[in-house]
Amino acid sequence: MANPAAETVTPPFTGFNFAVEIAVPGVAQRLCHAAFSDCEGLEMTMEVKTLREGGNNGRQIRLAGPLSFGLVTLKRGMTRSFDLWNWMARAVSDPALRADAEIVLLAADGQAVNARFVLSRCLPARLKAPTLNARDGGVAIEELQLAYEALEVKPGDAGGVGAGAGLSVGVSLGGAAGASFGGFA
User: Fold this and answer.
1) CA dihedral 119, 45, 12, 10 (to 10 degrees)
2) Residue 88: which region, alpha, beta or left (left: phi > 0; alpha: psi -120 to 50)?
3) What's the structural domain count of the chain?
4) In this structure, are strands 71-77 and 177-183 parallel, antiparallel, or unpaired?
5) Does residue 42 have a pLDDT over 80?
6) Position 6 in a domain
């Protein structure tokens, strides 16, 4: 007899197939051709405010506070492409320069898209040169940290449970946070 609970379980996405798309106006339409081996730091944290009501010692009230976003850390083997270094230099000379980026989570086949993490108004917060060691024959890995102002998660074209719904969270220049749920085309 088949287990009905097992039939409704959707397998989780794998984390080894992903692409990074970074577009920087005036530097590159597609920065370093998305050749990153590691990506971490896609996160948002809500500061929860706790209030105590006078005379009620058995309960506390929790209120939603402002959102903060993490720093995305991207690592790749250094190549002849100096797009990251050019972007950092341009960001230093033009502090208003921002990029838009997408971290695309691919299915195991490497073609179908499971999800897209859309990062708005990105700024290179840190660019680290590779560690050089003459005793080690390893690959020279450079590291980029991106600060971003908004994070939007969109479902991919791979289908599955929940396809067509997404979460968009952003912080406006004034610092107010907003979130919306809805369908995405």
Assistant:
1) -110
2) alpha
3) 1
4) unpaired
5) yes
6) no
Q: Is residue 56 part of a domain?
A: no
147: domain CATH number is 2.30.110.20
* Most confident range, picked from 27-41, 44-58, 152-166, 170-184: 44-58
> Cβ distance 37 to 77 under 8 Å?
yes
139 CB contacts (<8 Å, ≥6 apart)? Answer: 77
| Token code pair at residue 36 | 């990153």
Q: Tell me which residue has tokens 């719904």.
A: 165
pTM of the complete model? 0.76
Q: What does residue 75 show for φ and ψ, rounded to 5 degrees?
A: -125, 145
Query: Which secondary structure element, helix H or strand E, spans residue 150, and what is its range?
Result: strand 150-155
State residue 183's pLDDT score. 35
Distances (CA, A) of 154 to 58, 158, 183: 40, 12, 9
Residue 87 in any domain: the answer is yes
Nearest to 153 by CA among 169, 171, 167: 167
Residue with tokens 């590691």: 38
7 phi, psi to nearest 5 deg: -75, -25
